[in-house]
Specification:
Layout (H helix, E strand, L loop, with lengths): L2 H6 L14 H13 L2 E10 L5 H21 L2 E6 L5 E6 L3 H17 L6 E9 L5 E6 L4 E5 L1 E3 L2 E2 L1 H11 L21
Antiparallel strand pairs: 1-3, 1-4, 2-3, 4-5, 5-6, 7-8
Helix pairs in contact: 3-4
Length: 188
């Protein structure tokens, strides 16, 4: 950011840090053996679309890439939008490594096309407990946090903190708890 940006109030958005996503595949062993949680075979990437034709054109290229990666990994992919104007790419695959690879490919391609700043988060669902557990990856900070919804706009903070303590040696965990945003309406 230059002096003109400071003077005129412009701020450049941070590029995503998608390279730490792969830590989830090694942490999956601990999730399963110590906590009985197994990948539900679904993940989703949230991003803020731009209305520009350039973004739509770039996303057409990304759609083609993701379809190719999904076919190679045996995954299925679908897109949707939510009530807040965010787009979601939902990936289905029984293999966690394939899910992470597909999410990483999407993030890398959007970044290569110049739209990395539009990436918000990726969510990976794990089942096996009383409630589903979501590991959310914030692209801007390059860190995960657990999210355990227990009902309508309610979450299990105690279990989330337990998950943090059990996995902080294996996953880059977001240290600022105020950034542990809930994704109650995530399509997974």
């Amino acid at each position: 950011m230059g002096i003109r940006d400071v003077l005129f109030g412009r701020k450049k958005l941070a590029e995503p840090k998608e390279d730490k996503l792969f830590a989830l595949t090694t942490a999956a062993v601990t999730l399963q053996t110590e906590l009985g949680l197994k990948s539900a075979g679904v993940a989703a990437v949230a991003f803020k679309p731009q209305s520009s034709g350039e973004f739509r054109s770039a996303f057409d290229d990304v759609d083609k890439l993701i379809e190719a990666v999904a076919q190679q990994c045996g995954s299925t992919v679908e897109r949707s939008s939510d009530e807040y104007g965010f787009d979601w790419v939902k990936i289905h695959d029984p293999d966690l490594e394939d899910l992470v690879t597909t999410v990483h490919a999407l993030a890398a391609e959007l970044t290569a096309q110049g739209f990395g700043a539009q990436l918000l988060a990726a969510a990976f669902r794990f089942d096996g407990g009383a409630n589903p557990v979501y590991w959310i990856y914030g692209f801007k900070r390059g860190a995960f946090w657990p999210f355990v919804p227990t009902g309508e706009k309610k979450r299990d903070n105690a279990f989330e903190l337990e998950l943090k303590s059990k996995l902080e040696g294996e996953l880059p965990i977001e240290p600022d708890l105020t950034r542990w945003l809930a994704l109650f309406d995530a399509p997974i």
